[in-house]
Design a protein that fits this description.
mainly alpha
Length: 90
């Protein structure tokens, strides 16, 4: 089964639920993202490539069925604002 973040208090579960390892990984990704943007890579292109790379890694680790089940829950999480930066900063 895919390890997902345990339920966390609102308003931003995706941010508050980060472990130290996840915080370090996010820091590395933020640095790489900023460098790519500085070099002129479009944000939308970065986002799509990042999603592809992340899903490919998860499929390689957990298998297609587990990842498919995991992503089924993403629409509700997006609609609930878990990935909205304006909420994450509050």
């Amino acid at each position: 089964m895919l390890n997902a973040c345990a339920p966390c208090p609102s308003p931003s579960p995706a941010i508050r639920c980060l472990t130290t390892s996840k915080q370090a990984a996010l820091s590395y990704l933020n640095e790489a993202w900023a460098e790519a943007r500085h070099d002129g890579v479009d944000g939308d292109c970065l986002a799509q490539a990042s999603l592809f790379a992340a899903l490919a890694e998860l499929v390689g680790t957990y298998g297609e069925d587990a990842v498919a089940k995991f992503v089924e829950g993403l629409p509700a999480r997006v609609r609930n604002g878990e990935f909205s930066l304006s909420l994450a900063k509050q």
